[in-house]
Known about the structure:
Largest sheet: 3 strands, parallel
Structural class: alpha/beta
Shape: globular
Strand content: 5-15%
Radius of gyration: 20 Å
Low-confidence stretches: none
Oligomer: single chain
Helix content: 25-40%
Distance between the termini: 42 Å
Amino acid sequence: YEEYGEDFVDMLDGMFSFVLLDTRDNSFLVAQDAIGITSLYIGWGLDDGTIPHGSREAIPSAPYDPIVLKHAFENDVIKRLMTDVPFGVLLSGGLDSTLVASIAACHLAHTKSAKQWGAQLHSFVLVGETYDVTTIRASTPMFLMSRKIKSLGVKMVISEEGSMMRYSGGYLYFHKAPNKEEFHHETCHKIKWDQGCIEKWVLRRAFDDEDHPLPAKGSA
């Protein structure tokens, strides 16, 4: 911060939320990781000023490269394996969670966590016996499953939520985006607030690699 000013936040890579107070002029900086993995709460008092909301949402200009996407996706998952507590993955059986679980299974044996807790990847799935979209997406079943996971001693879970938003614009209504600007804006909006191709085509294409196939679902 002293060397780069508030732009140093763009250099951070990980899960974080903090308030930084500069006692030289009593200014402060509030920052949180882009997806909001760690909690950040703001309370308002009668004497509060305004908190500026910076926005760095430049529309990507680099052309689609499946190899670059694949490596970025894999690195994001591997980075989350740098933990020394028992962890698992949420496995829905869809594309995103299957890729996350497969990559985690491939690299788990080399982690500090595996040496302490074993190399078996623990996956958790919620079986909803209904096709009602609202019910399936409801928070109550997830809350109950989270309590069960905690009771098993698992301290962290890796999910596909980042992939759904960051990489593929995973929900069906993204197909109706009128242009790339609106698509990108909505993707950023989704991250911050919790052309006729097959669904998530760019992600499927990135991992369509016969020379380096990922393990099947069952092996997780």
